[in-house]
Amino acid sequence: MPIISSTVMLQKAREHHYAVAAFNVHTLEMLQAVVDAATEMESPLIIQSTVGTVRHLGAKYLVEAATVAANQSSIPIALHLDHCTEFNLIIECIRAGYTSVMIDASMHPYEDNVAITSKVMEIANAAGVNVEAELGKVGGVEDDIVVDEQDALLADPEECLQFVKQTGVLTLAPAIGTAHGIYKGDPHIDFERIEKIAALVDIPLVLHGGSGIPAEQVKRAVALGMSKMNVATELRIAFSDAIKQIFDENPSENDPRKYMIPAKEAVKQLAMQKIGLCGSAGKAGVLQ
Ligand code: 13P
């Protein structure tokens, strides 16, 4: 099937209390690896790219690669633009065929976040494309977006409700204590806050900063109402470490397949673990 909007995919996840894993990919091999993982586990899948990766590979290449993968696979696949602050790039990706976009205006005051998100909503809605927005500020580093620990800000549950009503946004990433990148200690996830937001807001919620969260904490966050989990850093590390190992063993290796194949396999294995934590294995058919 072609790539589809993530709207219904995530609504079903919320309804049935699992999450869809959303994996940031940077190369064709990473894209193939997460598709192989989700296909093997019969799970719905969201392939994500950062703004930096769109600039590196091009939106059309990413859409074509995701479309070929989706057409060859039996699982539902969406293609999502992660953390975008630029209106024009969002339009470029929608025109290229992305089926889901994130407008991240969380660095602006609340009213501006509402206005910017609403503007994107209007266009994306007309194109049948899902929109994710962020409230509060998720700490850490994601591509060019850097939020210092002291500037991270947890989302207010009442404000989440008001934000969803004002913008009509269909997917919300509330900051609940996770951070992008690898945690120095244990993450401080505010589970009570997740529960409160999920009770007030009836749209799918997104767990950012999925790398390095202990398994039990992921499961608890999903059980409380997180319907999408973003994973980026851990996949990059798995991919890079596998390549480094090949070069450690054979510094003169010059056949890309010799290091790309193990790197792809490392990403696939990790993606399968994350899909397992999300509880979405076997849910590929839950779309009607
Ligand atoms: P990690 O890099 O911590 O996995 O976070 C990914 C993310 O939330 C992308 O939006």
Automatic annotation (TrEMBL):
Enzyme Commission code: 4.1.2.13
Xref: InterPro entries: Aldolase_TIM, Class_II_FBP_aldolase, FBA_II, Fruc_bis_ald_class-2
Chain sites annotated for binding Zn(2+) 1: H83, H180, H208
The record's free-text note on cofactor binding: Binds 2 Zn(2+) ions per subunit. One is catalytic and the other provides a structural contribution.
SUPFAM superfamilies associated with the record: Aldolase
Broad EC category: lyase
Positions with a binding annotation for Zn(2+) 2: D104, E134
Record: residues binding dihydroxyacetone phosphate: G181, G209, G210, S211, N230, V231, A232, T233
Pfam families on file: F_bP_aldolase
Entry keywords, A to Z: Lyase, Metal-binding, Zinc
Superkingdom of the source species: Bacteria
GO function terms (MF aspect): fructose-bisphosphate aldolase activity; zinc ion binding
One GO term (biological process): fructose 1,6-bisphosphate metabolic process
Active site: D82
Keyword Lyase among record annotations: yes
Segments passing through the bilayer: none
Reported cofactor(s): Zn(2+)
PANTHER family, per the entry: D-TAGATOSE-1,6-BISPHOSPHATE ALDOLASE, D-TAGATOSE-1,6-BISPHOSPHATE ALDOLASE SUBUNIT GATY-RELATED
Name used for this protein in its record: Class II fructose-1,6-bisphosphate aldolase
Organism of origin: Paenibacillus kyungheensis
Gene: fba
